[in-house]
Amino acid sequence: MAPSGAPMGAAGVVPADGATCRAAWLCLGVGAGEGTCCCFWEPLEELGLYGFEAALIPVLSFEFMSLQTFFEKLSHPDSYEGLIFTSPRAVEAAKLCLGENSKNEAWRNSLQEKWNTKSVYVVGKATASLGETPNSSPLLFPCGSLKREVLPTILKEKGISLESLTVYQTAQHPSLQESLKNYFSQQGIPASITFFSPSGVRFCLQHIQKFSGDLINQIKFAAIGPTTAEAMEAEGIPVSCTAENPTPQDLAAGIKKALHL
Which pTM was predicted? Predict the structure, then answer.
């Protein structure tokens, strides 16, 4: 596992047999200058088992906002049916808004017990139960500035009301362009580039096109999941593989297959 202070970002890969095969991984960071989320080191370690060497490049940074408003809403659990989280940053925002001693005390003394009687949903199979019965009170939905409208639309059609609150902003990592420039100048054209989010596609594509030039067609592009693959296709990027499941093993296996290794 990488040290906590390691930079967040992309990966260069070389097979153990010495043949040149670099794969750049463009993925989310937890915030500018804050180290890499361990979930992004796991795919790199998995690639190592396949004989690859990978390097991360910072892509996104996050700025939390409206935390006081979020706490005020959390202070009225009776007004909500429950909570729904669609990203780790939203969960982190909840932790941050409860971080002050006075707020933490209020949470422990009464709020936590009340929220424990509510439903808390995350994206995945558990959200299927949201469609079973319409809710009388809204679900509180802390989200990011770039949230997609797919989930709110689907739930609205099923009679499930949401009260959205933007608790963090997503922006391009300040060192993204320089990091990509250094990677391409020092390592050359990667065999594969993996995107972990639609936001990664949005912020990276123009730089990749610039630094790879006419050789961009040599790169095999991979996606962590179908939503990211859709964003890539919308930008005209040929998707060589999409992980069957968003796991390091499936992603590494997909890249290996795409590279015919």
Answer: 0.70
